[in-house]
Specification:
Blueprint: E1 2-6, H1 10-21, E2 25-30, H2 33-42, E3 46-49, H3 55-61, E4 68-71, H4 76-88, E5 93-97, E6 119-121, H5 123-135, E7 142-146, E8 151-157, H6 169-174, E9 182-188, E10 191-193, E11 206-212, H7 216-222, E12 232-236, H8 240-249, E13 255-260, H9 263-272, E14 277-280, H10 286-291, E15 299-302, H11 307-319, E16 324-328, H12 335-340, E17 345-347, H13 349-362, E18 367-371, E19 377-383, H14 395-398, E20 407-413, E21 416-418, E22 431-437, H15 441-447
Parallel strand pairs: 1-2, 1-4, 2-3, 4-5, 5-6, 12-13, 12-15, 13-14, 15-16, 16-17
Antiparallel strand pairs: 7-8, 8-11, 9-10, 9-11, 18-19, 19-22, 20-21, 20-22
Helix pairs in contact: 1-13, 5-8, 5-13
């Protein structure tokens, strides 16, 4: 595909890096010369320094032949204008990062589609979704959703008291046939493997599974968890994200408290939120944390606009007894430090936006969905071609063709999700989430391409 990216910040550069690995033809337009230079030193793509709203520069970027344009600058109006120009050139897919509710709300007076935008990426909603994934699976170390939240991948660290310990994956699958799931990766002693059915789970293992949403409760039960565990959440922040998150979580969590350091924003939150307790105060104040009984909180979530405030309040909440703490951070270089001092999960808005856009692109394309931790295992999405060597026959008859150390995690056929077994027949057009070692990705992709 020919793809043009407008905006070279964390979102744009992350997209460019991932898409370049997928062998797409990428052009990037960025107005800041230093940013252009930094990206040019890392990536082998066409970089144009200037305004993304310039038709002349868009022509240089190849807009006449572009299949997709992705406008992710910090400016809503610029992103919309870029999509409007791209529409005039006949670009089929036009994605815009838009923060303002004026363009996104149901009662908005402007039809954003008529302005040329085919897909809106809302930063606040993306962050809320990222946080909600952890809240709905308490204790998870890793959380990723696919297919609009209908396919889930979750990681857990196994302890001695969990029903999953000392059992083989084959045994677990046989006892849960009505609730399909597949364990796709395991880390033991720092070494990552793609396990087979004879793999026996031990305490201390980090285990990753993929499953349909309907199997969520069964999957949680294997790790001694239930969604009902989460009955009390404290949110800290004076951001729009804090209000959206409180509203979202209050729909399935019995007690949600929003602690807002800004008096005016707290009053606004009280006006628009139902079933949420609103308190004006700062969560860097231990007396406020005591007042909201943070020691009883199953989650403490820092979503203020300032990273330092989120980190500090989350650390104080952890010290006061909160079970799990999450902090939103605009900085991407200190994750290991933050987790080593007690933050369970660090959410990066701009990286989350990049992942959301990649997921939207990959629904119709071959592409990497997620890398498992920092190890050599990836989940990729592939659409089976009609004449590929793998289609039309049961998997048990073509298993020898599949790269050793690779597994088909799920088959997405229309609205159905299938956890495949040896009798599953891959049909042309099926989308598969395949788990493989990074070194095998290119060879795995060839199996699903047409032989013609």
């Amino acid at each position: 595909m020919k793809i043009i990216i407008v905006g070279g910040g964390i979102v744009g550069s992350s997209l460019a890096e991932h898409l370049e690995k997928g062998h797409h033809d990428i052009s990037l337009i960025e107005i800041d010369s230093r940013t252009c230079q930094n990206i040019g030193e890392r990536l082998d793509i066409l970089i144009i320094c200037g305004s993304g709203s310039s038709p002349r520069l868009l022509e240089q970027a190849g807009i006449r032949n572009a299949d997709m344009i992705i406008a992710v600058s910090p400016n809503d109006e610029l992103n919309i204008l870029v999509c409007a120009i791209a529409q005039q050139y006949g670009v089929a897919t036009r994605i815009a990062r838009i923060r303002s509710n004026e363009f996104r709300s149901e009662d908005a007076t402007i039809n954003i589609g008529k302005l040329g935008v085919t897909l809106i990426i809302d930063p606040e909603s993306v962050v809320v979704d990222s946080i909600t994934q952890f809240v709905e699976t308490p204790g998870a170390t890793d959380a990723v959703n696919f297919q609009n939240g209908n396919v889930l991948m979750r990681g857990y660290t196994v302890s001695e008291d969990m029903p999953i310990v000392n059992r083989t994956l084959k045994d677990i699958r046989q006892h849960n046939r009505d609730n399909p799931m597949l364990f796709i990766a395991a880390i033991r002693g720092g070494k990552a493997t793609i396990p087979d059915g004879d793999y026996e789970i031990k305490a201390g293992d980090d285990i990753f599974g993929i499953f349909p949403r309907a199997s969520l409760d069964t999957y949680l039960g294997l790790f001694n968890r239930t969604r009902k565990d989460v009955d009390n959440i404290i949110i800290s922040g004076d951001s729009r994200t804090a209000i959206i998150l409180a509203d979202t979580l209050s729909k399935f969590v019995p007690h949600v408290v929003l602690v807002d350091p800004d008096a005016d924003h707290a009053r606004h939150a009280a006006d628009v939120l139902n079933n949420v307790e609103i308190i004006h105060g700062e969560c860097t104040d231990s007396s406020i944390l005591s007042e909201v009984y943070v020691r009883n909180a199953k989650f403490f979530i820092g979503v203020a606009n300032e990273t330092d405030y989120n980190i500090m309040s989350a650390l104080l909440a952890r010290a006061e007894g909160a079970r799990e703490v999450i902090a939103v951070s605009s900085e991407t270089q200190h994750d290991r430090l933050f987790t080593s001092i007690g933050i369970d999960h660090v959410i990066h808005p701009r990286l989350a936006i990049a992942r959301e856009i990649l997921e939207a692109i990959n629904r119709a394309q071959i592409g990497r969905l997620v890398k498992i931790r920092d190890v050599d295992i990836e989940a990729i999405r592939i659409t089976a071609a009609e004449q590929s060597p793998i289609t039309g026959r049961p998997l048990q008859h073509v298993r020898s063709k599949i790269q050793k150390g690779s597994i088909i995690g799920t088959v997405l056929r229309g609205e159905d999700m299938i956890i495949p077994d040896g009798n599953t027949v891959i049909e042309p057009g099926d989308q598969m989430i395949i788990i493989t070692y990074s070194r095998n990705v290119s060879r795995v992709k060839k199996l699903f391409k047409s032989r013609q």
